[in-house]
Specification:
heterodimer; A: alpha+beta; 13 helices; about 55% helix; elongated; B: alpha/beta; Rossmann fold; binds adenosine-5'-diphosphate; binds magnesium ion
């Protein structure tokens, strides 16, 4: 009986190729759109998460002045000195790295190329804290750091602007009014979450910066990173107490420095991406529903069309359940065929979009299963129930149906 | 003719609706048809011929009275049991042909065999044989849309006789055909009645067609018109 129903169903599918195609199309579109949308949402979330970790999710920034003075900081507040760094290394537990930073805008010149960028004075911990790899060359030697040698490590953007296709290692460039030897190139990081080009910089030893660029012993910020991201909160309060003590701030007085980490930013960003995923999910659900309604329409119309056919089958001795089984097999075959094609197209579209937008590839098995099951169920339900109504008709009435 | 009743209607009544609104289609029909008979049913439109045919074909049951098919009381059977009776013993030919569209003549004729569970190879041979017997073996792979009305009705006849049924029911089988085609159809029916011994019950408006039958029964207002029958 099942085999018969199968033969009848396949004949029917072949016979009404157009109707079968349209039914399948509804399912294909529904499944494919859900899968590709969710893949896009997941990929965006993964991208944001990756960008945050590139930024250094366990990095703490200590700056002079009150935070409320804005990004420029309080110019009057006392700067840090090298001893502050030594004190932090000595007193704070669980440090992965402590790096001084002083920055200044500068004009970099090589040959007839002229590029204006910014220079950071720091030491090798700078690369640890910012989790930065080298593309070429090396970090600073102890001698270069201690002696404040005129060497520099450049970001990808600076390399491209000054050297084009050439390799710059061991060549000298001019920074302001002195010349400086390039010893390393940083691995490109791309734009930051805030849209800033992170590769547009030059790093020099802090001593060299102080002697030749700023002309004083000051350090404008200290970057600290923790081995364990969960210890950041404790580390922050330990640093605050240490700095209050070192800067002689009495209880109740305002601090003349601020200690911040990136987690607030991260929280905002991740809630934004959650919203995005929800939004895409909603759009996808709507397309799945629209696909479902399409299937429903075609199935309903086809059953109306086929009521006379059902009457003929019943009159020549088909049982109600045989007619139903035929319709059920038909719906199952069409819906699962549509589901499979939809899954393939959806994944392909998802991969395509991810490649186009250079997003990471995230595969979400459960959404594939859910989308497939949902649309197949819709196909089966709407193939089955109208057919059941027709199969329950008196064969005479079904035959008379126009 | 040996006395072997296939169809027995005993005081069969059929009405549609209930109470005062009830409309009588049959108002007490007594009718016995023997195995091997070729019966024509005639009568004005609305006299209950189709209603009687539907009951005889086990598509419907009488509201009152009894219907015995091969001695079985059809009124006491379930929907599925009646479907099985139709499947194994009854062939239908309709005025409107009622073939499956977009389906080849061969597949249309195969359909009743499929429900009988006959294996594919045998099914094909039997269907082809039936098409040959109505002279349509050359158009076996054409769909109804590609066939003339006469050809379509012959496909329907092939479908009805392919199972070699006990009873063949034809409700106005020539209603949509011209005289020439009608006579072809009648000759086919007559040959199946003679050669295979299939009992045939046919509704017709036309006297010419009724003359092919061995007995004519007249209906009037949901009853058998005895006066006219005796007049014959
Ligand atoms: N399904 C139905 N519902 C209500 N009345 C019906 C139905 N079928 C037939 N009738 C009525 O029963 C009577 C007999 O119909 P029918 O058997 O089709 O007549 P015939 O075939 O002789 O022309 C007619 O008056 C018709 O209107
Ligand atoms: Mg009629």
């Amino acid at each position: 009986m099942i085999w018969n129903a199968f033969i009848l169903a396949l004949r029917e599918i072949r016979r009404s190729a157009m109707r079968s195609f349209l039914t399948t199309l509804g399912i294909v579109i529904g499944v494919a759109s859900v899968i590709s949308m969710v893949m896009l949402g997941d990929a965006t979330t993964a991208y944001v998460t990756q960008s945050i970790s590139k930024l250094g999710s366990n990095m703490i920034i200590i700056r002079p002045g009150q935070d409320r003075h804005g990004p420029g900081g309080d110019t009057v507040a006392k700067r840090f000195i090298h001893d502050d760094l030594t004190a932090i290394s000595r007193e704070i537990q669980g440090l992965k790295g402590v790096a001084p930073v002083s920055s200044k805008g500068i004009q970099a010149v090589y040959g007839n190329k002229n590029y204006s960028t910014s220079v950071d004075g720091s030491d090798n911990d700078y690369f640890t804290v910012k989790d930065w790899q080298f593309e070429e060359g090396r970090s600073f030697t102890d001698a270069e750091l201690k002696g404040g040698k005129a060497v520099c490590i450049i970001g990808e953007t600076v390399r491209k602007e000054l050297f084009g296709a050439q390799t710059p290692i061991d060549t000298s460039i001019r920074l302001g009014n002195f010349s400086c030897q390039v010893i390393g190139i940083l691995h490109p990081k791309g734009a930051s979450m805030f849209g800033m080009d992170q590769d547009d910089l030059i790093v020099v030893p802090i001593r060299m910066f102080q002697r030749r660029i700023s002309g004083n012993q000051e350090i404008s910020a200290i970057l600290v990173s923790a081995h364990n991201p969960s210890s950041i909160e404790n580390m922050k309060s330990a640093i605050i107490s240490l700095m209050q003590e070192r800067r002689h701030i009495r209880t109740g007085d305002e601090d003349d420095f601020n200690v911040r980490d990136l987690r607030e930013v991260i929280q905002t960003l991740s809630s934004t991406t959650k919203m995005l995923t929800l939004l895409l999910g909603a759009v996808a659900t709507i397309s799945l529903l629209v696909g479902g309604i399409g299937i429903m329409n075609i199935m309903l119309v086809s059953v109306t069309e086929r009521t006379r056919e059902i009457g003929i089958r019943l009159a020549i001795g088909a049982l109600e359940r045989e007619v139903l089984l035929q319709f059920l097999v038909e719906a199952v075959v069409l819906s699962s065929l549509g589901g499979v094609i939809g899954v393939i197209l959806g994944i392909a579209a998802g991969i395509g979009v991810n490649i186009a937008f250079e997003l990471p590839f995230v595969f979400n098995t459960s959404i594939v299963i859910i989308a497939f099951l949902f649309s197949t169920m819709v196909g089966i339900l709407f193939g089955y129930f109208p057919a059941r109504k027709a199969a329950q008709l008196n064969p005479i009435d079904a035959l008379r149906h126009e | 003719m040996t006395s072997e009743p296939v169809v027995e209607l005993k005081g069969a009544k059929k009405y549609y609706g209930q109470g005062n609104a009830a409309a009588y289609a049959l108002q007490g029909v007594d009718l016995t048809i023997q195995k091997g008979e070729f019966v024509a049913i005639m009568g004005p439109s609305g006299s209950g011929k189709s209603t009687a045919m539907n009951i005889i074909g086990c598509l419907d049951v009488p509201t009152e009275g009894e219907y015995l098919f091969e001695g079985i009381n059809v009124g006491g059977l379930s929907r599925d049991q009646r479907a099985l009776l139709r499947r194994h013993y009854i062939g239908f030919i309709f005025q409107g042909f009622n073939l499956l569209g977009k389906t080849s003549a061969l597949e249309n004729v195969e359909l009743p065999l499929l429900y009988r569970g006959i294996p594919a190879g045998e099914r094909r041979d039997m269907a082809m044989e039936a098409l040959k017997s109505v002279g349509l073996e050359d158009v076996a792979h054409h769909t109804p849309g590609e066939l003339s009305g006469g050809q379509q009705q012959r496909v329907a006849i092939a479908r009805a006789i392919v199972t070699n049924p006990l009873v063949l029911l034809a409700d106005e089988p020539t209603g949509n055909l011209d005289t020439h085609k009608s006579i072809e159809v009648m000759e086919l029916l007559l040959s199946f009645n003679r050669d295979k011994g299939i009992t045939i019950i046919m509704v017709t408006h036309e006297n010419d067609m009724a003359q092919f039958a061995s007995r004519i029964i007249h209906f009037r207002d949901g009853c058998i018109d005895t006066a006219q029958n005796e007049h014959q």
